[in-house]
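Table S5 (text form). Sequence records supplied for joint modeling of the two-component complex.
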Amino acid sequence: MNSNNGYTVHARSKKRSFFYRAKGDSPFKRILIHLVLVLACVIAIYPVLRILSVSLRPGDRLLSTSLAIIPQDASLGNYREVLFDKNFFLWLWNSLIITITTAVIGVILASTSAYAFSRWRFPGRGPGLVFLLTTQMIPAAMLMIPIYILAARLHLINTYKGLIFAYSVSSIPFSIWILKGYYDTIPVELDEAAMIDGVSKLASFYRIILPLSTPAMAIVFLFNFMTAWNDFLLARIMLQRETMYTWTLGLQSLQGQFQTEWGAYSAASILIAIPVMALFLFSSKWLISGLTLGSVKG
Amino acid sequence: MHSLNLVIIRNSLGQVGFTVIVIVLASAAIEAVLYVALKVILKNKYALPVMLLAPAAVGLIMLVVYPVFYEFKIAFSNMSLRHFKNPSYGLGRGWDNLKLIFTQPVLKQVMFFPLLLRTILWTAIQISFHVSLGLGLAILLNRPMKLRGLYRTILIIPWAIPQVIAALTWRGEFQYQYGFINIMLRDIGLAAIQWKSDPFWNFVAMNITNIWLGVPFMMIILLGGLQSISSEYYEAAEIDGASGWDRFKSITLPMLSPVMAPAVILGTIWTFNNFNIPFFINENELETSDILVTALFRAAFQYNRYGFAAAFAFVIFLVLFIFAVLYMRATGGLKGVYEK
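The corresponding structure-token record, covering 638 residues in total, follows.
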């Protein structure tokens, strides 16, 4: 915030502030508030910095009681090991191909259903929406038992098919809620105006609703993407062959029960976490507005 | 060692392409049948919405509804690793499974009710820390000040980092000799803690990890809620001479509740069903650190008692369902569904 427009921003945000008398705060109180926030930030970021620190340590000093963030003899040896001696690219490829396919399918299925929920008052609509909410209460571990048995019977273990199908469907209820909330904010008059011009109800969906709801579609795509990308449980059950591992299974395999490959694990974590975190922080404003929209309306 | 090569890429693209084609063809077939049945023959006015809903509905039926019914059937069987192909079904089997849950250890030692109590304790601890710390930070961040955007960005990092990485990293940091917490404890002259083998400290470790992970979500949601409260209320309260605490109690909290109620119920369900944190932090497989869902997972996939685990799953779902219904009765959280 530069000093030029700093004043206006400052004045405006003060009006909405919780402590309306903020200007009357003593310097002591202000310093205290900054101290609390700095402490919270340190707690939030320190474990992440530790991964970075371990990933930069040379191979013979992985186990160390040093707390320095950047080790004195920092090296990129662990990164070289992960990239060239481990199945890192294979894990990424498996995760990427599964995740992108499911996110696309999930968005398409959810967007048409959400349109039906938003624009028609068909019998069974209320119970349908409640059903979607109820599915969110089912513990994932509960569904794993029948899904594992059915997948084993249908020979879907160790295939992309099983996972793609399961992931695309599993985030549909949440996606429908978010998209329906967004469609509800688009005035019905827009549909009707289009229909007077002789456009069918279906055409008004893809000519009017879809273009107007791109932000919500982006949110839902990201949600689907993140859910599938970060999933461990289902992948753990469905994929047993190492060539099929997604990155979550791969990372876990580096942190074995008895012997942890700390260097490789940390380097791989950094390589995966940085893009995901960047994407998340970059899109956090939309993600959060979508979340509150979905949850508050629910 | 299997590096990524052209054969693997071609094979996986082929599989994925095939899957997509199957899904598209299946949807097209469903739509065609519905079109003929509803639109052409019955001339139903809801033909279009039904067609729009059909693919997602079929998917949900195959992935959620049918598996739940199938699981209900398994709950009335003795299915296990030994009886995987040819389990026997019967009402008596179901009754036996149900009886076993409450009379025998669910895993090797831990019984159902201590497990339930621990899960409730875990959820209560988590929600109270998430809400109180999240609300505290949200209030601080809602003030005009320098570096606000920076603080906010750094504070959501625990939420942004993939949960599996966070959990595995924390598990590493609870290592006795090289984890940073024990190093710090030694540096200030305290005794290091056996985070992994001591049941009490392992439970604490689980809680520390999940508090770290869960506060940012609550903070951001509550910050959004705080920003939507009009300052006029505070001005009016100030004229009336209300103290800071009075304003918090009679303006902030009630005005926040429409945002807080759904966030708390979502948070409660997520925490109650949280699998990753108890599963990863509990490396030595202490049964004293299991909560209901991790115990369920282990009963099914470690001890392979599928029939028993299926019955157990329904008991867990029932507990959660009763809680949710009571909560929504109390707060009216479901009102919006029927109104709009």
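Note: Residues 38 and 47 of chain B are 5 Å apart (CA to CA).
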